[in-house]
Request: fold
Amino acid sequence: MFYHVKELQYRSKPECPDPVYAKKLQEILGGQFGEISVAMQYLFQGWNTRGDGKYRDLLMDTGAEELAHIEMLATMIARLLDGAPDVELDEAAQNPVVAAILGGSNPQHSIVSGLGAMPSDSVGNRWTADYIIASGNLLADFRANLNAESQGRLQAVRLYEQTDDRGVKDMLSWLIARDTMHQNQWYAAICELEAKENIVVPSTFPRELEKQEVAYTLFNYSLGNQSAEGRWAHGPSMDGLGTFNYVEDPLPYGKKPKLNPAPPYIHDTPL
Amino acid sequence: MFYHVKELQYRSKPECPDPVYAKKLQEILGGQFGEISVAMQYLFQGWNTRGDGKYRDLLMDTGAEELAHIEMLATMIARLLDGAPDVELDEAAQNPVVAAILGGSNPQHSIVSGLGAMPSDSVGNRWTADYIIASGNLLADFRANLNAESQGRLQAVRLYEQTDDRGVKDMLSWLIARDTMHQNQWYAAICELEAKENIVVPSTFPRELEKQEVAYTLFNYSLGNQSAEGRWAHGPSMDGLGTFNYVEDPLPYGKKPKLNPAPPYIHDTPL
Amino acid sequence: MFYHVKELQYRSKPECPDPVYAKKLQEILGGQFGEISVAMQYLFQGWNTRGDGKYRDLLMDTGAEELAHIEMLATMIARLLDGAPDVELDEAAQNPVVAAILGGSNPQHSIVSGLGAMPSDSVGNRWTADYIIASGNLLADFRANLNAESQGRLQAVRLYEQTDDRGVKDMLSWLIARDTMHQNQWYAAICELEAKENIVVPSTFPRELEKQEVAYTLFNYSLGNQSAEGRWAHGPSMDGLGTFNYVEDPLPYGKKPKLNPAPPYIHDTPL
Amino acid sequence: MFYHVKELQYRSKPECPDPVYAKKLQEILGGQFGEISVAMQYLFQGWNTRGDGKYRDLLMDTGAEELAHIEMLATMIARLLDGAPDVELDEAAQNPVVAAILGGSNPQHSIVSGLGAMPSDSVGNRWTADYIIASGNLLADFRANLNAESQGRLQAVRLYEQTDDRGVKDMLSWLIARDTMHQNQWYAAICELEAKENIVVPSTFPRELEKQEVAYTLFNYSLGNQSAEGRWAHGPSMDGLGTFNYVEDPLPYGKKPKLNPAPPYIHDTPL
Amino acid sequence: MFYHVKELQYRSKPECPDPVYAKKLQEILGGQFGEISVAMQYLFQGWNTRGDGKYRDLLMDTGAEELAHIEMLATMIARLLDGAPDVELDEAAQNPVVAAILGGSNPQHSIVSGLGAMPSDSVGNRWTADYIIASGNLLADFRANLNAESQGRLQAVRLYEQTDDRGVKDMLSWLIARDTMHQNQWYAAICELEAKENIVVPSTFPRELEKQEVAYTLFNYSLGNQSAEGRWAHGPSMDGLGTFNYVEDPLPYGKKPKLNPAPPYIHDTPL
Amino acid sequence: MFYHVKELQYRSKPECPDPVYAKKLQEILGGQFGEISVAMQYLFQGWNTRGDGKYRDLLMDTGAEELAHIEMLATMIARLLDGAPDVELDEAAQNPVVAAILGGSNPQHSIVSGLGAMPSDSVGNRWTADYIIASGNLLADFRANLNAESQGRLQAVRLYEQTDDRGVKDMLSWLIARDTMHQNQWYAAICELEAKENIVVPSTFPRELEKQEVAYTLFNYSLGNQSAEGRWAHGPSMDGLGTFNYVEDPLPYGKKPKLNPAPPYIHDTPL
Ligand SMILES: [Ca+2]
Ligand SMILES: [Ca+2]
Ligand SMILES: [Ca+2]
Ligand SMILES: [Ca+2]
Ligand SMILES: [Ca+2]
Ligand SMILES: [Ca+2]
Reply:
């Protein structure tokens, strides 16, 4: 169950309105690695955790925090849209800034949401649960989380570079710091699980059931062997259970498939 | 540029048709972590790599391999659908297997694809590029790849448990082994980059620009402090640049937001 | 900002596992009018409210409650999936219940989410923000909310009819009662706003700017005049500003459109 | 069955081409509350109506009219795109209007549709049936319709404010007036059904089966009690069957959930 | 503008309810090549036609007919769902038909649409305008139409094979015949345009601007030269302007691409 | 199985960066008829082909080539984004080109992909497998392919008109030429199959089972008889099996449908 307090986790107020930046900032609210994604991902992982309370609690702690980040960004976007000018094409002739606003702002911010944030990314794609993952396997999912925080911090940093507004930069400096923590925390959780299991997910599948002769082979399917220079091509494998090997000219192991004809009720082309 | 050979990377032939399993197997062909996803993800990452040839080559090697895996699964699904019975509801009264097939198979396998594989998951959602990521930042993207191979191997293993067909299990033992390699290889590449940079992505953002006082703090937003027991709550941070701390009763840092009224041309409720 | 407590708003435990019902119950978790939809809709409306604190508070109160409902349903679905049998096609010959489970359960519940709830509806469509609305105009949005609670309660009632499990029915009796309250509350808020404004949204557009001669006309475009029997065809209009009238044989007011040819750089068929 | 006449329901001709406005106008053609949505929503509701002819006829009358509105908007958009300039980036240096057009127009209007309207919204999202609802319950659905006409008229009014073109404003004055009628008609139909049933949908579920003790309670989950000031917090409920009450410090009714571990064939993290 | 008559274009009544078949039949109502797709495709093509009245009229004639087909299928599906049993898992033990219905019917038909048709395909994917095309170029679009009628008739025929209900078969015999006509009519229109232009769309692009040396070459990228046996590999090209040639061992014409490093504000991995 | 070589099929290098054009060019990479669509469509058709090797080989030859086209476009887009300026709103006042770039470029190119190509169209919609078709019936599918190459060449030609960059035009001249070949090749394959079967797909459905009396009739549902002037209205049908006829005033063949009331457990409005 959730309680809401009206105070923001951190302040979220721009120096000036800027509808073009409001459009861009939607990316980390409603994009693939925006705050909606991490909130929903951590909450669903938490609700689906079967077992150990420590990980479930960490997931719920962080999921609840991400809800606060959605709120901060929604507030910031509404303020960036404050007094957004109501401009028309012929005004652009007088004023290149008007031209930029006409082109660079999101028309749905005035037509659809009434100068409010939308659950969408920076080009207007609505948020979709296609973005999230909760598999029940904690090591797999913590890797998904480490990736999400890496992509998310990267996007926040790129957005930080694209504005001079001190209010926006102040808020982003908070979100970027929290992503630093979240990368650290998922990293710590991953280390703990990898130490107990093995690095290969899932760790419980009997290795003798997999085709072991190709479990540590790099097949060179893109001709040119620069990839042979990497750690992944030689020496003991990272999981400690094998040895990497490199196949420069890989051949097929299978034969040409020959499918049976379709039965008549399928009405394919008669051949 | 690509060349295709008609031989399969590995054989892909079931002992018996099984349209119910064909439906399930679609998950690792066209689902969120199916072979289409990894193929497209690695190829786009490779094409967008600006710089070092070793990583680009590794991405293209693996992307090309994943195309071969789409092919193996498409072939397997077509064969599992071979001679799929053309059954009707009243036949179910005589035969529970017919009932199971009626319910458990994907109607689009007969109506739409003519007993062929579809670019869809196990419940029929069409594959979408929402599933993939290519950010240009290699450490971020290799984490995405490690996650994809973890989720993918997990799903393949779960599917392995759901059949007794030796032909299907044989093919899955190949794919599972390749996922073992791919987890190992992305892990190796990640270690290499983390050693050169730092674990926090992106490593190039000046730390003094982030809100450092909360960069290593775990806020306990889900009441109950089991999460304080983890490595992430105390001691040096994983990136070596700070110390974890735990805030049991976190308070807001911001104030209640108060938005300005909308201008008249937005026609909100007058208040 | 949000705090989470681990206790559920209300208990959520089935008498018995039932994977077929777990699939169905996804509808009111992740479907068009499921709990994710109302939670996100009310929260976005609240964050975007510019002005009066009473409505904003009501939206945030209710949005936070809906998060608790997502949690209850996620918990119920995980428990309905507890010990879901790991069945194969040939077992169906022995047991029609196995056949029903094979056909009637969601394969992603075992392959993707590891016996956890998914952010999807009862046929597997992932939740999308296409489902929600937050326009900034409170009367419009409260109507959206009244609709959402009407559709949502209807679906919960239909699901109530489809199970005998007393644990499931107990939880649904809670959700149905809350939908009763929510219908009542949005109804009350609508009455308040309609009394201050007018029933036509937005109330601030000058009526003389609309084509007043057709503002209260029912055009009979589906031949047969049963629709003339309704209150909407005769008498004073509901907004008190006009009189309904019925046009039995409506004619076009416009002319045949004739579009100009496309310029050559468009390369249409030359005509 | 449908007959088409080539004359438009109302004229639809701009004074001047304006590709930037053409992009915006797509919102009320192919957006969430555009004309495709209401046409499909009313037609599907009509086709699914089981019973009383008066409501079915009203739905089909209005659904057929909305098809004519799609046609008017498609025509208007094609004309706004007439002779759309074929501009390049370097021309923007000379002319801010060119800059605005480059940025503010939809590239698919020239590349994909050949200067024609598209079944998309103002940012290019394709129309999806996710937008519509037809539940079979008429009171629920008429509420959906009243909402759709409220959102739709609001968007049309906002678009009216964003142009000076008298031809466009003339057409919008028609559509806005029709939305006035449609809000009035669904309002009338709702009143009729609420008088016969009750305001709570569905009216046929026995009230004793819902958790009556919380059927009229407002839980204050967003701390701060401004919401206690509303009609929804005190006094008789709107459905006449209860009394509103306000719980300032709501506590959980349920316990912490504890899920069983997953079975081995799911291969979760071993704990 | 459109008029609706309540009579169906053709009768649409099954002998018996069959909810499993109702689910399947959704494919040709709301699937990729269902009636919604062709209706919307032809209408949008008609509205966007700039020029010759004959083709515009044909498009509008056929678009209006397809609306009648949506109506017939919606009616049929509602009737196939009539009296759909309200079954539970434990009843399946007694009755394999119950098991088949539990598994093979669409749960949204009872929970969401109240035993009505939905704007979805046979696995529940909502209809999307991604399915349709209207480019402004009539020859291109008539080819899209010929394809749509080919795929649509194929699916209708496959569905015809999957039922014994004489009422359903009767209705399908109508739709299949209409698809025969529609294939014939688009074929005729294509022949007319190809005779006036050329078979290559668009016909107006100066051939000297394309890379003529590869305009009639078949590159053998899938090793093995069975494809050399076809008409497309040798002899005069179908457009009469060149000669087909076959390249058995195709080599790249381009060089390895080398991308510039990203600028610092992009924060890629430093290399 | 696939091998990749690092050389491009054809060179792909612009004279100058142009982020606005990069956004547009996404259409033929990741749009409905972009290179991802044709690659996936041909490969899936090839994998699903049951029978004749000649067609399967042709499909795989062409599918593999389209992968090379994705690669060329991804490379071109990355280069068009090279050194894309990092501009802000206030700079637009000084420079209309900045204004155009702010408005006309895709924000995800800097925030999400790090100046790389995305699997999206020119307005940012992610690629979806909704775009492709593989039915198993070769004649139907070759028609889909001819359409795809027609739409694709049309879009490439329109893009050719929208740039003066000689590098871009050079690459497009290659792609346009290849589309010329692909239209020719599918045309040839279609002719071959039509000569063996009949033009109506599928050719194997017994004609006496369709409603023959309406198999060659044009119903004039859009009033006005310009459509009577076409070849499709009179004379022998294109399939040689009937005679076209024109019905100027088409009447319904069916009756008004009357649906049964819903059962009580559906909880529709009581009527
Ligand atoms: Ca290589
Ligand atoms: Ca905690
Ligand atoms: Ca009527
Ligand atoms: Ca409150
Ligand atoms: Ca070949
Ligand atoms: Ca006509």
User: Anything to note?
Assistant: The first strand of chain C starts at residue 2 and ends at 4.
